[in-house]
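3.2 Worked example (two chains)
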Amino acid sequence: MNIIFDYVLFHFQRLYHLPSPLEIGYGLDGRSRVQVTSTTSTFFERQQAKPVQTVWKDWQGTNLTLFFDETPDQPWFTQTEQGHVVVHYDLVASAFYLLSGWQEFYGPERDQFGRYPYKASQQARHRFITKPLVNYYLDILREAVSLAYGQEIKPKLWHGKPFATCLTHDIDFCQSAWKVAGKPALKKGNLGLFLKLAQQKLAGKDAWFNLPQVEHELTQLNAKGTFFFLPESAPYDGHPNADYDVLSQEIQKEIKRISAAGHEIGLHGSHGTGTNARQLQAERDKLPADVKGNRFHYLRFDPVKTPALLEELNFAYDSTLGFPEHFGFRNSYCHPFRLFNFKERRMLPVWEVPLNLMDVTLNHPNYLQLSPAEVMPALTPMLEEIIRFGGVFTLLWHNENFSDYGLSAGRPLFQEITRFLQNRETCFLTAGEVIGLTE
């Protein structure tokens, strides 16, 4: 249980300006200024995927799910005559369960791409995908520390701003707008559009070779983005990878130009590389030498094999963990966190910058199918949670969805979302910068 406590405490210490030395005991030791009741459950020893029972308890107007407590009748915490504060619920066990990805490692469910599916998750079952429960648990612990030490515990800021936004762009397609958007237009009798896209392609200016357009949108925000390039063009088991050659002169020129402008270049590991270290490293070698971060194509993260692989290749961070089926908090946390190695029972040095929203999620036939008018009303409660806890909002907006031939109203939606964030005084950071401020 010490491993569980150390993992949760590590992340708690990165959220707030805490007293030093900090006395928090996991278990009622009678000595520590803050003592968190530890569960008597043998759940973690039995290595089950899902807790047998849950209870719900209100915290400042929000009903929270707890996984290792039997009754919600007691107060969250009380103070003893000696001034010690006793937390009556095992916030540590519940936080570890969600943050570490325990349910994914031990759960057998996988979709056709080897991903842990949203429908199998506790987030779906109990409908808290847009509530960062781990942040709530740690907020309760913060209040307990504040009471025990008699001082206000303030959150850490992002260059003085209350929360951060990480704008990321997976570069999958640069050369196929004429085909993907043009052929359907031709079938619908829109010969003019087909010819326009075909002529652009023949002139070497495919409508999706539009990285300057993406960069222009970032410039309007005074923001730097993180661009994940996909170095593999060969299909994998019938599934497409890139439609371009990352080593071609025109793509290399764009990578150098984007990097010189202060944006970050990351690796977009192709299909299958989440379980193939040699292939992932070969793809990384095709990009600039200082690439520190990765996001897997199709968000193909294997809960059992991928974390150790990322450590083996010395990646500083990954940014794959979000559910493609739904926006929100896959690990119920709105800050970066360190991945966990269950086989060796230790925290890894690799950070995860969790993905909160992918553009495709909004209207893909298999996902949410929201109209443009429905997007902001749906997203706002999630964004308010991030703002409440001073977290990081990570957005994935593919380059083709800045054009007129991708996601319906793609560019206006991107502008609407980022305008909301600007108005709430966010700090725009690259993924690498986010990690630099979190470590």
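3.2.1 Second chain
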Amino acid sequence: MRAQRPESGRVDAGDDVIRRVLVVDDSRAQRRILTASLTRWGFDVREAESGDDALGICADYAPDLVLSDWMMPGMTGLEFCRAFRDMPRETYGYFILLTSKSDKDEVALGLDGGADDFLTKPVNAAELRARIAAGARILQMERELTDKNRLITSTLDELQSLYDSLDSDLIEAKKLQQSLVSERYRDFGTAEVSLLLQSAGHVGGDLVGMFPISDSRIGLYGIDVSGHGISSALMTARLAGYLSSSVPEQNLALQKTRVGGFAPRPPAEAIAMLNRVIMSEMETEHYFTIALADVDLQSGQVIIAQAGHPYPALQRATGAVEFIGQGGLPVGLIDAAEFQQFEVTMAPGDRLLIHSDGVTECAARDGALLDEDGLSRILRDLRQTRGRAFLESLIWRLSDFAGDADFQDDISAVLLEFRPDPMPG
């Protein structure tokens, strides 16, 4: 630290971190000697003749540097140092004990009591200035660290505020995404449809739905957009419009008839149209898998096109489970991709589960996946559980398997159940 001689009798400590100094000594002569040197070097100096007086001064003055004699009547310098350390301060105060003690145990005791340095009495002026300069360097580093910590705290507060705002927006976004599946259950008489949509985060990339085709036919679909989060959720919102249940004119799975009504478009053709739309109109790196089904509620005939989506599970009335489908390419990867469809006939008591890979790829704590075998076991175990109760039980079983209710992937499913034949009366 460069000492500056005050001009015109005024103290000018500039930007030095040590400006205010407190000298504590029961000897008035010792205080005067130290104060004279410190004042000449440009410091603002206060004096105290005892530890008690010094504490009173510190309450209002908050010195940057304390020079205190160790041996004083009443409160010793070491006791004062401990009390000084207990006082609340915004910045660190540097403490130098003045002592004739040179024993290492005594020095260790002083350091343990909170002292930063020692000066042997009588005090040499050059050594005093050197010790003050060393203290100034330490305080400078402490002030810089404090400023950086304040900046970090301020930045963290701003980030927390932004996070809270984003979290609030995501909560609203989750409500909006869940509203895309406005109807979770419908009884069609001969069959029932139940829907499940549970995102791993606030919002996700899964979507399920159903739409009417005619009095005896319905469409069902399960979609899984690549990735997670906001961008995937935005894509599901766009796709919901292309398979709308309320605006059939916009539904790519339907086509107008000559008499003004709507008829089903073959599921494979509808998925091909979705692929063209994604490749030509959407500037995105996302792709998605889909299983799209055309269901005849009277005959039990189900036509399904599968584009990269997990194989649907078909459970017969006997309880036997089989996984059906042909796999296929996801949508949005290849221009002019072709998609295939297949048919299955469901009988009374049969049920079909169209599910996302969040079900079969649900992982246990040891990393083992549920897989199709695990899902088959759940379907057989819950054979007598139907509708929404089955889907709720499915979530519980997955939670037990994973050991955690917070899944790593979105969970979605469409459950189509044909009513069993009535028991002969």
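3.3 Remarks
Residues 180-418 form a domain with the Phosphatase 2c; domain 1 fold (CATH 3.60.40.10).
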